[in-house]
Amino acid sequence: MNHTKLKFIIGSVAIIIIATVVFVFLLFEREQQETTAIVSPDNCLPAFRDGGGPYYEPNVPFRDKLVPEDNEGEKLIVEGYLYNEDCTRTISNAVIDIWQASEEGEYEEEYYRGKIVTDDTGYYKFETVVPLGYGEGTAYRPPHIHFKVFVDDIEIVTSQMFFEDVRGVEGFEDEYIIELENNNETWIGIHNIVLPDYQ
Ligand SMILES: [Fe+2]
């Protein structure tokens, strides 16, 4: 085998290897994009509006973890996407302002509240504990998490998200309930928020 032929073979093999690596890389990239593509919820129901109640505090910090370190509640991570009214797009850079009762069913001034911002894909996530319901008799409130959503500093909605115990109860549509899954002592809750009257 002469020198030129050898160079040709080595060159060809190198090109095949590089082409294969590039092909596999592109394939992997494409799969990544497909798996992270945003899927609209099956049932696109906008959040209901309510008055927010007496426990809202406007100037709470931005933080992903709402509870104090020494809490005794069941750990809960809530995550989901924020959608426009007909779920054709997600809303990035919106502020979700959250407040809830503690694991003992009480509101506190400092904790069990906080603001989070949706990322570039409209995704949000926060860590908290499962709240306890509160009130007696007909005034009983099942466990819930209050939230307001602001887009460009304008309030779009005040609403609440609930837990499994109200499934099937009139007025508590399935879309308002956090879908829970237990993972190593932590509840993972999926909850998409659909903004009413907002395109
Ligand atoms: Fe409440």
UniProtKB/TrEMBL annotation:
* Annotated ranges, domain Intradiol ring-cleavage dioxygenases: 53-165
Which keywords has UniProt assigned to this entry? Dioxygenase, Membrane, Oxidoreductase, Transmembrane, Transmembrane helix
**InterPro entries, from UniProt?**
Intradiol_dOase_C, Intradiol_dOase_core, Intradiol_RC_Dioxygenase
Determine if Transmembrane helix is one of this entry's keywords.
yes
One GO MF term on file is: oxidoreductase activity, acting on single donors with incorporation of molecular oxygen, incorporation of two atoms of oxygen
Gene3D superfamilies (alphabetical): Aromatic compound dioxygenase
Pfam families per the UniProt record, alphabetical: Dioxygenase_C
Q: Where are the transmembrane segments?
A: 6-28
Which top-level group of life is the source organism from?
A: Bacteria
Q: Which family does it belong to?
A: Belongs to the intradiol ring-cleavage dioxygenase family.
The name on file for this protein is: Intradiol ring-cleavage dioxygenases domain-containing protein
What does UniProt list as this organism's lineage?
A: Bacteria, Candidatus Dojkabacteria
